[in-house]
Design goal:
Length: 393
């Protein structure tokens, strides 16, 4: 199986030494006294010491008694004292005078040490099963040289132990699943005992694993702030919109150019002949009109004339004159329909209505482009210009 380790066979597969001693790193003949029991009464009590079996020998010979293998008793007794084997943990032996057989006493051993060791005169364990304390998480207890010992290793090396479920798991609480990624919700699945790490799904441009916040950008296109005055950038998932220009009066966000002014004073062109203004951050310097000979940029006054010719305003409808160094440009007043500025001639009439002379005693008419004003002939009692014909007396 690729990618996975598999356990090999046991190195202790011989009949003489079938038990693997992980602590001593060798093969033993036994792990507990029960492994050495040959089922024979007359060979005495077997024991396991340092991985090797031993036997106490004939239990009857030392007291001058015979050993009855079939009945598992010593025979030939005449009194109780003869049956006493000198071992306290197996109880008080008595002699059955009728049969001449010794009767075993009641052992004082039990619990995790149910076996009476007649050699050591003490209660010992029989196997690892008798040493089991019922607690899964402290590992499998052992029976070593007749004494119960703790597990050679914990039940769940490298993982956590679930005592209630008698199983090894990755976690018992949510707090044990922290993955140092602030973009995941860490929890412990109670059913499987495994950690689950659910990622955030509400971040369009990804998540910052350090603080768990949604990233602002994947590239610079995500950072467009619609401001031509800034330089847009995306660094580490964060938008970095820095000011690209240093402008004394601010920057035009639409064009990315510096504004010229905050107020009209910012637009002073040191020319007294212009009117300086500021509108929408842009300067205007409008030249003074009405100075046919130009303007003095220092004082703002029109230059003085010396003759009428200096006052020509290029309008044939005005009379240009110079008096006291100042020009006068007086327009014609005798052109009711306006004047042609190129020729200086009055504009012609086209309809009678153009010819009103504000005199109710005339009949106004336009003929051939010229107005004619004829006296009224229908007033028998005379005519009054503001009102027209006078009434009869």
């Amino acid at each position: 199986m690729a990618g996975a380790c598999q356990a090999g066979g046991s190195p202790c597969a011989t009949a003489a030494a079938p038990f693997c001693d992980e602590v001593g790193d060798d093969c033993d003949a036994c792990a507990a006294a029960l492994d050495c029991d040959d089922g024979q009464f007359c060979t005495g009590q077997e024991a396991c010491g340092a991985g090797a079996c031993s036997s106490s020998g004939d239990p009857c010979a030392a007291r001058g008694l015979a050993c009855d293998e079939a009945a598992d008793v010593c025979t030939g007794c005449t009194e109780d004292a003869v049956c006493d084997d000198g071992v306290a943990c197996n109880g008080v032996e008595t002699c059955n005078s009728a049969t001449g057989a010794c009767v075993a006493g009641l052992t004082t051993c039990g619990g995790s040490t149910p076996r009476c060791d007649i050699v050591a005169d003490g209660c010992t364990c029989e196997s690892a099963a008798t040493c089991d304390n019922g607690t899964f998480c402290d590992g499998a207890e052992r029976c070593v040289d007749g004494a119960c010992a703790g597990a050679a290793s914990p039940a769940c090396p490298g993982s956590r132990c679930d005592q209630e479920g008698d199983r090894c798991v990755q976690c018992l609480t949510d707090g044990q699943c922290a993955d140092t990624n602030a973009c995941t919700t860490d929890r412990c699945d109670a059913a499987s005992g495994a950690c689950r790490h659910a990622p955030r799904t509400d971040c369009a441009n990804g998540c910052d694993p350090v603080d768990g916040s949604c990233q602002q950008c994947d590239d610079v296109a995500d950072c467009n702030d619609d401001d031509a005055c800034t330089s847009d950038g995306c660094v580490g998932g964060r938008c970095n919109n820095t000011v690209a220009l240093t402008c004394a009066h601010g920057c035009d966000r639409a064009t990315g150019t510096c504004l010229q002014c905050d107020a009209a004073a910012d637009c002073d062109d040191d020319n007294a002949c212009t009117t300086d203004g500021c509108a929408a951050g842009r300067c205007s310097n409008v030249a003074r009109i009405g100075c046919p000979l130009g303007c003095n940029p220092t004082t703002g006054a029109c230059n003085a004339c010396g003759a009428d010719g200096d006052c020509n305003d290029n309008d044939a409808c005005t009379t240009d004159t110079c008096a006291g160094g100042s020009c006068s440009n007086v327009g014609r007043t005798d052109c009711p329909y306006g004047c042609n500025t190129t020729t200086g001639a009055c504009n012609a009439c086209t309809v009678d209505g153009h010819c009103n002379d504000d005199n109710a005693c005339t009949v106004d008419a336009c003929s051939g482009g010229s107005c004619a004003f004829r006296s009224r002939l229908d007033c028998e009692n005379g005519c009054f210009p503001p009102l027209g014909c006078l009434p009869r007396p």
